[in-house]
Amino acid sequence: MRIMHSSRLLRMRRHAMAVTASLALVAVAVSGCSSRETPRSSGTSRAPLNMTAGSDSSVAASSRVLFGGDAQLSGLRDLGRSPAIVRTYDTIDNAGNFPTKDENSALRSGATLLTSLGTGRHRDWASIAAGKSDTAVLKFLRAVNKAAADHHLKAIYVSFNHEPNAKINANKGRPENFVAAWRHVHKLAADAHLDAEVGGHLRWVWILTASGFRKSSIANSFWPGAKYVDVVGADGYVSGGCTKQKSGNYVNPAKNAPQPGAIFGPALTWSTTHATSKPVFIPEWGSVRFTDRSVRPSYIHAMTDYVVAHPQIDAILYWNDHAHYSSCDYALDKDPSSQRALTAMGRNSHFQAHR
Fold this sequence. Notes:
Strand order of the largest sheet: 3-4-5-6-7-8-10-12
Number of domains: 1
Number of strands: 12
CATH superfamily: Glycosidases
Radius of gyration: 18 Å
Strand content: 15-25%
């Protein structure tokens, strides 16, 4: 296992609480960093997020996709490229540590970030909405904005308490408390001119588990509103039964992986209906190994085709790691065939967006 600094430990703990989806063979990860303390596009115009430094914000978004993953993805020897976007995890408790070693490394490579700001320990959404953590939150948001400016990035993407629908976040309050907290954090950024819409560099990615979009009522209850969100995100994994085992390296005995549309289709449908013009990110995705070693690389190829066929998707980030308290192993380090499949995705002309 790689270096286990605090942000890594946070990432690892979240998969211990992964939720098995009701569809056969499908499980979506419950990946809230704050809780770790430890159809084709309908043709509507979209927010112009994949822009070069000289782009006009009135120009429609590029059809190309940001390709990336977590910090561990860069360690894949045969990936053949640097990620254009790197997934990182912070909390209010460690807000003063931004940028971390992983974040600095990604920024120096020319990548942008999708970073989560979790609540940290002993904070609920109501207290954040009430302003009790404003000093730490603003310190973090200013540091993120400064990093974007220092590294000549048009934007860094921020998500407050991603996957609030996950069971592990249930003790933080009701959906309306989350909405109030999200809006409050967003207002802090806007008032300080850190938001991209008012001259800053922060773009906001609202993320649920992919299963949270299967019932519109669930997604609707956590939706902060279009004026507070730039991107809709859905995290989804092919996990099989790995969440039922506390350790080891689970191998899925199924003969086939689910189709990507079975996992991510509901999020695209919900977004088209309820978040018109908003692009979609897949901030975390991955697959465990199968007994038939050809299945996982085939699934990665299927994901490539799926993203190409759905221009609503603007970014896709592979989570290349092993869960800490379960047998869910999504890492590709010892799977050359799956590495080659992901390398092919990264080299595909559709996945060449850069910040």
